[in-house]
Amino acid sequence: MKNNIISELQRWYASNCDGEWEEECGIKIETLDNPGWSVIIDLNETNLEGRIFDEINNHEYEDSWLDCRVEDKTFKGFGDPSKLEAILQIFIDWAKSQNEDWLRPPPPLSEEEQKKIENDNFWNALGDEIGPELCKHENCNRKRIQHSVMCKQHHFEMITGQKRI
Ligand SMILES: [Zn+2]
Question: Domain for residue 165, yes or no?
């Protein structure tokens, strides 16, 4: 059977489903009240994350328009009522141009990389050193963070067993 644009999209989608990706990421195709189409495709943890997409902004006539861009790790395509197929084609062409094997997802994160992301999230959630009390750690002159008797650095070290560099 010849591949049409929908089956190509299905293949790209299926290639990224790994038991986790599809829980938070996916593809949304909706209509707009303009009227028109909206195609939103998550690129998080796909082989397209971080790839450059040259924005398309085509408004020839009032009833013939097309906008495609990539921002926030998301492909966003919008167009008039006749443009759904064109938007999907633009996405598939781009996806195929970006990787040698466009259906091979990136390798899963190593344990170390996963740990680093967890630590980064934890660090970012700790908040500012608001004090006014000083950190309880010996010889530390920094103020404590909220919900701890220690500064950000020492609280992080206590929980994760690692120094934050
Ligand atoms: Zn401290």
Answer: no
Instruction: Confirm whether 150 is domain-assigned.
Output: yes
Choose among 42, 6, 48: nearest CA to 21.
Answer: 42
The identity of residue 16, as a single letter, is N
Burial per residue of 103-129, b for 16 or more beta-carbon CB atoms within 10 angstroms, e otherwise:
eebeeeeeeeeeeeeeeeeeeeebeeb
User: How would you list the strands of the sheet with 27-32, edge to edge?
Assistant: 27-32, 36-42, 74-79, 64-71, 56-61
Residue 72 lies in a domain: yes
Ion ligand 1 residue ranges (Cβ < 5 Å) = 135, 137, 140, 142, 151, 154
Whole-structure pTM value: 0.70
The per-residue pLDDT for range 142-163, each reduced to its tens digit, is 999 999 999 999 999 999 998 8
CA of 73 to the centre of ligand 1 (A): 36
Checking 135-144 for CB contacts under 8 A at 24+ apart, the result is none
39 and 16 co-located in one domain = yes
